[in-house]
Design brief:
- Residues 54-174 form the Cytochrome P460 domain.
- Keywords: Plasmid.
- It comes from Rippkaea orientalis (strain PCC 8801 / RF-1) (Cyanothece sp. (strain PCC 8801)).
- This is Cytochrome P460 domain-containing protein.
- This protein is of the alpha+beta class and 200 residues long.
- It has a single domain, classed as Cytochrome P460 (Chalcone isomerase, 3-Layer(bba) Sandwich).
- It is 31% helix and 30% strand.
- It is built from 6 helices and 9 strands; from the N terminus they run ααββαββαββββααβ.
- Strands 8-7-6-5-4-3-9 form a 7-stranded mixed β-sheet. The chain has a two-stranded antiparallel ribbon with strand order 1-2.
- The radius of gyration is 21 Å and the shape is globular.
- The termini are far apart.
């Protein structure tokens, strides 16, 4: 009788392990490039978006430019992972796995003619990876996240529609500011060159 109970418990344990191993690929999306860059990320299904949210970007990434958008009353704070900034500085290229985070803030007019952020509205993450040959977007893909880091949308249509305007900058509006930040080590500040934007 004791042996039967022991065998039943053993079988239950083995079954639990098998179930856990079976369902784990559907619950976790692992990105080795992201892991090697040294920051954690919010897990979302690859079917929702292959572009993951870097949880600790405030600590691990470099704030390279603040962009004022007076027409829409929005301030954008732009961040890039440090290894990609170093690569851009050294050889003027983005490595596979480069990630840019854009915070969009509601803003009020400051006394020095600059906008002052008042509230974080959204986060947009843009990632470049070798093999992501997206039409009219180079190797970049984008995702829209809420301030809490929850995925809002992984749809590429509106992102591509805007970024094709700057295909000569590797589809990045802030590439000149990014190059200046890489060269000087200083956070840049500028007004947007474009009057309107989907990203608010």
């Amino acid at each position: 009788m004791k042996i039967s109970k022991w065998i039943a418990r053993l079988l239950l344990f083995v079954a639990s392990v098998v179930i856990a191993i079976t369902i784990s690929p559907f619950r976790f999306f692992y990105s080795p490039v992201v892991s090697e860059l040294g920051y954690s990320y919010t897990v979302s299904s690859a079917a929702e978006s292959p572009v993951q949210f870097p949880n600790n970007y405030k600590q691990q990434f470099v704030h390279y430019v603040t962009v004022d958008c007076p027409t829409s009353g929005i301030v954008r704070q732009m961040y890039i992972d440090r290894p990609s900034l170093e690569s851009l500085k050294a050889n003027e290229t983005f490595p596979s796995g480069a990630v840019i985070v854009m915070e969009t803030h509601s803003a009020k007019q400051g006394s020095d003619n600059r906008l002052i952020p008042t509230q974080l509205n959204n986060l947009f993450v843009r990632e470049k990876r070798r093999g992501w040959n997206v039409a009219a977007s180079g190797e970049w893909q984008s995702a829209w996240y809420s301030p809490s880091g929850s995925l809002v949308s992984g749809n590429q249509t509106s992102c591509i529609g805007c970024h094709t305007q700057v295909r000569d900058r590797d589809y990045l509006f802030t590439l000149p500011a990014l190059q200046a930040a890489a060269k000087t080590g200083q956070t840049q500040h500028q007004q947007t060159e474009f009057s309107t934007s989907v990203c608010r």
